[in-house]
Design brief:
This protein is mainly α and 116 residues long. It has one domain (3-84). The protein has helices spanning 3-26, 45-81, 96-101, 109-115. Helix 1 (3-26) packs antiparallel against helix 2.
Length: 116
């Protein structure tokens, strides 16, 4: 992969990481440590059920963002290590078009389709 492509990938990944970090902070999550999600406590059974449902949804959203952040950090580390753009399954180069669409991709399309 050419340096120009690596630089573009790094820029996209860093921008995406910044956006994810902001979303996590907006959800009350500490970026270096355990997640701290605080929802208002409601009184009454109906309100309690709604708060539980909202908390469950919030936790799901935060977990998805944390996984995304982890994927981005792994991709940035691969750029630093010189292994970015190689399929983790077969070792072949991941096409630049795929990396442009999904900068943190770890599998080529063939292996991705085989994995499910």
């Amino acid at each position: 992969m050419e340096q120009k492509q690596l630089d573009a990938a790094r820029s996209r990944l860093e921008a995406e990481k910044e956006a994810v970090d902001k979303q996590l902070l907006d959800h009350g999550v500490q970026l270096e440590g355990d997640e701290n999600i605080s929802l208002d406590q409601h009184e009454g059974f109906a309100d309690s059920a709604q708060a539980t449902a909202e908390r469950s949804q919030e936790i799901t959203i935060v977990e998805q963002m944390r996984v995304r952040r982890s994927d981005i950090l792994a991709a940035l580390a691969k750029i630093d290590q010189g292994t970015y753009g190689k399929c983790e399954s077969c070792g072949n180069e991941i096409p630049p078009e795929r990396l442009e669409a999904v900068p943190a991709a770890t599998l080529c399309m063939s292996c991705k389709q085989q994995s499910g």
